[in-house]
Amino acid sequence: MSNKKSKEITKYDKGDLLTVEITDIGNDGEGIGKVDGYTLFIKDAVIGDVVKAKIMKAKKNYAYAHLEEVITASDVRVKPRCEIARQCGGCQIQNMDYERQLQFKQNKVRNNIVRLGGFEESYVDGVMQSIIGMEDPWRYRNKAQFPIGRDKNGKIVAGFYAGRTHSIIPVDDCLIGTKENKEILDIIIDHMNKNGVEPYDEASGKGLVRHVLIRKGFTSGEIMVCLVVNYKGKGGQSPAQFIKAQDSLVERLRKNSGMTSISVSVNTEKTNVIMGLEIHTIWGRDTIKDTLCGLEFEISPLSFYQVNPKQCEKLYGKAIEYAGLTGKETVWDLYCGIGTITLSMAADARKVYGVEIIPEAIEDAKANAKRNNIDNAEFYCGKAEEVLPDFYNKGMADDNALNPDVIVVDPPRKGCDEACLDTMLKMKPERIVYVSCDSATLARDLRILVDGGYELKAVTPCDMFGHTVHVETVVLLTKAAR
Ligand code: SAH
After folding, report:
1. Strand partners of residue 85
2. Is the CB of 356 under 6 A from ligand 1?
């Protein structure tokens, strides 16, 4: 035995095999363990495991290591239901008991608010509410986009890109998606095989079928299939062949119960962007309908729509509760998308204003207001950090608009722009409801809002994406008493 002092760190090198107990979980779900003060990050190792790991990349104080063998399995380790969970990379923590996944997410939000937001631990523990988990964390996604290509043996397959690469891992039946996905993909692949329809090849830019988008309205039962094609009308595939092939495909697909819309999206660019902007409906309607929070929404292949509608209703329910509406309030909903939160608050408010950067989403939001007979909602297209300050400086016809009671924000991962937060602080609403999909940027923004005169009142995480490391959070802030 060496007489090393406990603080002294031993550096290990690439290729070293170490036995380590996993004592923590990293933000990406990786297991973390220490050997002689030296920290190892090990993907697919679960907290509580004792594992044998091989160092792949060694730094001074830490290393990334590959899980070679689980020596003693943790109590919270479960066998992933999906055989390819480890390669696929979509579900980073499927090998962890669901209850433990929820605890991990709860802690992730809490720790980010403490560490990155600079809040007292005891204060944060006082405002944290329990995470809203799923009743059944399987088959929850209403949307899937499968790349189509060839596997190692040249077989046409639908699947997922293996984490951060461009090779396709065939997926038989993705268990967080709908049952119909597999039936539909089987028909498309069989059709391609029988009719010589080529999958797209990223390297050469040749071939036709790039992706298949499948969406299902969980309430309506309506299904949409959109084939993303590299359709130039020449090269490997003539337009005639293409159309003919799609016709017989349509005959087969439309027999699936629920099939409502079959379309083609043209994407001829060499790009990672999945959808092309040109959409042709080849059978049925252009859109499918679905109901969310009692409102009807029409969804086209390009629209953003929450992928887990059941949890989304719970999340919005919390946001509505935090907004504390009585029918008299003026509300801004920034980063409003197709207006789902805006419209679900409209009935209990005097007036709601939505702001969103994507023009098509704003068009959808306006149409959704009409469809649901909501006449107290107004939508503006532009960046929240420009639209809000502009109105604030120039004024609005509705005097109350610039003295709102509630501001809701639901920004993308990068969080809110400072100019947006500044204007929110100037507008001094009674309540701010912050819906976030990234608790690190949430923590940063909460610090700005609290320094600007708000009190952090309640934080509720919500699991919208079971088996992944992602977590949504809804937060209530109120104007601090002066
Ligand atoms: N609240 C909606 C959408 C949330 S997703 C819902 O729950 O469905 C975040 C939205 O912010 C996206 O629709 C995105 O297009 C939009 N967005 C991104 N940057 C923006 C910005 N700077 N200003 C306004 N909207 C923005």
Report:
1. none
2. yes
Residues in the chain: 482
- Is the CB of 357 inside a 6 Å radius of any atom of ligand 1? yes
pLDDT higher at 197 or 333: 333
Report DSSP state, residue 293.
T
Place of tokens 């068009």: 363
Q: Does residue 360 have a pLDDT over 90?
A: no
Which ligand 1 atom is the nearest neighbour of the CA of 437? 5
**Is there an atom of ligand 1 within 6 Å of 341 CB?**
yes
What was the pLDDT predicted at 237? 59
Which of the four pLDDT bands, split at 50, 70 and 90, describes residue 179?
A: very high
Q: Which of 306, 335, 417 has the most ligand 1 atoms within 8 A of CB, as the residue to mutate?
A: 335
What is the distance between the alpha carbons of residues 155 and 168, in angstroms, rounded to a whole number? 11
Strand partners, 259: 223
Atom of ligand 1 nearest to the CA of 337: 13
Q: What is the pLDDT of residues 214-249, one digit of tens each?
A: 999 999 999 999 999 998 766 565 666 677 677 889
- pLDDT at position 9 is 72
What pLDDT does 1 receive? Answer: 44
- Atom 12, ligand 1: which residue's CA is nearest? 337
* Whether the Cβ atoms of residue 361 and residue 340 lie closer than 8 Å to each other: no
- Active-site residue (options: 82, 312, 416, 437): 437
Residue type at 201 in one-letter notation:
D
Report the atom number in ligand 1 closest to the C-alpha of 417. Answer: 22
Ligand 1 atom with the smallest distance to the CA of 355 is: 24
The candidate with the shortest Cα–Cα distance to 46, out of 9, 16, 106, 86, is 86
The pLDDT mean for the chain works out to 93
CA dihedral over 92, 95, 96, 102, signed as positive or negative? positive
384 lines ligand 1 (CB under 6 A): yes
Closest CA to 318 of 467, 457, 138: 457
Domains of the chain: 17-77 (2.40.50.140), 143-292 (2.40.50.1070), 308-479 (3.40.50.150)
437 among known catalytic residues: yes
What's this model's pTM, rounded to 2 decimal places? 0.91
Residue 5 pLDDT exceeds 50: no
Q: Which residue has the tokens 């090990």?
A: 42
Q: Is the minimum distance from the CB of 358 to ligand 1 under 6 angstroms? A: yes
